[in-house]
Design brief:
Elements: H1 7-21, E1 52-55, E2 60-64, E3 74-81, E4 87-93, E5 98-100, E6 104-107, E7 112-119, H2 121-124, E8 131-141, E9 146-157, E10 159-162, E11 166-169, E12 172-174, E13 177-180, H3 186-194, E14 199-201, H4 212-221, E15 225-229, H5 234-237, E16 242-246, H6 252-255, H7 259-272, E17 277-282, H8 298-305, E18 310-314, H9 317-321, H10 329-341, E19 348-353, H11 371-383, E20 389-392, H12 406-421, H13 423-426, E21 435-439, E22 445-452, E23 455-462, E24 470-476, E25 482-485, E26 490-492, E27 498-503, E28 508-514
Parallel strand pairs: 2-9, 13-14, 13-20, 14-15, 15-16, 16-17, 17-18, 18-19, 19-20
Antiparallel strand pairs: 1-3, 3-7, 4-6, 4-8, 5-7, 8-9, 10-11, 11-12, 21-24, 22-23, 23-28, 24-27, 25-26, 25-28
Helix pairs in contact: 10-11, 11-12
């Protein structure tokens, strides 16, 4: 909890510091030592008071790789005096990496001044990675002892975690769309980029560390990122395209790797490089429901999932289990991991199937997923909390790096394009919009709501495993003014407080709703 003291005391102290050693435009921030800024635990009411106001009201959020550079490098605020008399304003920050262009100023009636908050490269460049360095920016009117701007400032170094649920890369929200163990050469990087992939998780060449630098150079040229097994090469550790490290204990419970060994692997990585996050990929045995899994596995997975900062898991119901009626389980597993194991406190990443894997233990008639099956696995995982999606594209017997049909390639392009276009919506907390849904025949369906600006976004999936069409009624506590079905070129006319839409088997719709 942040403790805040009297507005009068703190703002008076700020003015005294400013007047004794600084003036408007001098470019030195007020030292963080001394009285803390005012107010209760939480933002204070904004201006204008006595004619003074500060715009914009937003926080200053910046970021970059460890050592910098950081972007944006600065943010400009405007202090305006709308009154007819002269007013004095003061500014304060407790972020040592942030410099203010002025700590006080005097404005005649109707005048305005700019206050620039800028990153101090020498200070910011020495900050630890894999975390956000937060502070506070305060602008006040001494005469009226009122706060005009009270906002957080954040500097994100490398890959950080936002809202305990998703990652930011250099301060920007990022939704990883990744492939598992694909070759580090220009053809395959270009191929996967054409499908909407923006991240590699590991690569398929050995020895592993001989190819990491090569892969990162290719990904950098294609505006892509990587999660790699640990490599002490400084050119890899310090590469801005490196998102996180992946332990070499893939599916540890399945392969008999102990919790102690996973912990030791994690500790070794963090000791060598504390400035990057670490992820572990798990298999499906953490999950159980009425037809799958063993609840007795839960204690072990509680220990495994306590270790890394990022959680990844894979499940391939069609090609891996020859169970097409289990495609709901990617979404169910995402929710299970989020609710049971990480308690909404870590990002959950889901790897889905894209290929006919041609496995030796499934019947020869086993196929890869259809486009509809793969699409449901992706979107139902997102609806249930996954904030990154991976694709398994490999086939065995005989081996192929990517055994994707043209229809699957087209669906990957469509789905991944939609995820990228809607990533700012997806990577936001669930909305509190009152919404109830009913499928007319009582069939299973999954729904989540986000909001952005004046729009509410509803993501809905028909998860009926009888592969039956569905009709879903969406009911609100007020009548919508418009309902547009995203990327389908159609709108729906609401009826009172509701609208209804039809779903083909496994179909997913995204709605933009306004009130």
């Amino acid at each position: 909890m942040r403790i805040r003291t009297s507005p009068i005391l703190a703002l008076t102290s700020v003015l005294l510091v400013a007047c004794s050693g600084g003036s408007a435009g001098e470019g030195a921030s007020v030292p963080a030592a001394g009285p803390q800024p005012p107010g209760p635990d939480g933002p204070l009411p904004p201006g204008p008071v006595g004619g003074l106001a500060v715009t914009p009201a937003e926080a200053f959020v910046t970021g970059g790789p460890k050592g910098g550079p950081f972007a944006p490098a600065a943010k400009t605020y405007t202090v305006k005096n709308a009154s007819a008399v002269t007013r004095t304003w003061v500014a304060w920050t407790d972020a040592p990496w942030l410099q203010l262009s002025a700590t006080s100023g005097t404005l005649a009636g109707g005048a305005e001044a700019q206050l620039v908050a800028s990153v101090v490269p020498g200070v910011a460049g020495g900050l630890a990675g894999a975390q956000a360095h937060a502070g506070r920016l305060l602008v006040g009117d001494l005469t009226f002892s009122e706060v005009l701007l009270d906002t957080d400032v954040e500097l994100h170094v490398g890959t950080t975690i936002a809202e305990k649920s998703w990652v930011k890369v250099h301060g920007q929200d990022f939704f990883p769309i990744y492939v598992w163990q694909q070759p580090p050469d220009s053809y395959w990087v270009g191929y996967h980029k054409s499908l909407g992939i923006n991240t590699y998780m590991d690569h398929g060449y050995t020895p592993n560390d001989q190819y990491n630098e090569q892969l990162l150079a290719l990904l950098d040229a294609n505006d892509m990122h990587a999660v790699l097994e640990f490599d002490a090469n400084p050119n890899v550790v310090g590469h801005p395209r490196l998102l996180a490290w992946l332990t070499d204990d893939d599916e540890p419970f399945h392969t008999g790797v102990s919790v102690a060994d996973v912990q030791a692997d994690y500790d070794s990585i963090k000791a060598a490089d504390p400035d990057h996050l670490v992820t572990i990929n798990f298999g499906s045995k953490f999950y159980w429901d009425w037809q799958f899994g063993d609840p007795g596995n839960e204690p072990a997975f509680q220990q495994y999932t306590d270790i890394p900062e990022l959680i990844s898991f894979d499940f391939y119901p069609v090609t891996g289990w020859n169970q097409p009626t289990w495609v709901y389980m990617n979404g169910a597993m995402s929710a299970f991991m989020r609710d049971v194991y990480v308690d909404h406190a870590k990002p959950v990443w889901a790897i889905v199937e894209a290929s006919d894997q041609r496995l030796s233990w499934t019947p020869p008639s086993t196929t890869g997923p259809s486009p509809e099956q793969m699409r449901l696995e992706v979107w139902d995982s997102i609806i249930n909390g996954a904030t990154a999606i991976g694709y398994f594209t490999i086939a065995f017997n005989p081996f192929e790096w990517a055994n994707l049909t043209p229809a699957i390639e087209a669906e990957m392009q469509r789905t991944n394009g939609q995820i990228q276009a809607l990533s700012s919506v997806i990577l936001s907390p669930p909305s509190t919009l009152p919404l109830s849904t009913v499928e007319v025949s009582g069939q299973d369906h999954d729904v989540t709501v986000r909001e952005e600006g004046s729009s509410y976004w509803i993501f809905a999936a028909n998860t009926d495993m009888g592969y039956q069409p569905a009709t879903i009624d969406f009911h609100f506590n007020q009548p919508p003014s418009s309902v547009a079905v995203y990327d389908e070129g159609r709108t729906i006319t609401p009826t009172g407080n509701s609208f209804t839409d039809a779903f083909q088997p496994l179909e997913v719709h995204v709605y933009e709703v306004k009130f």
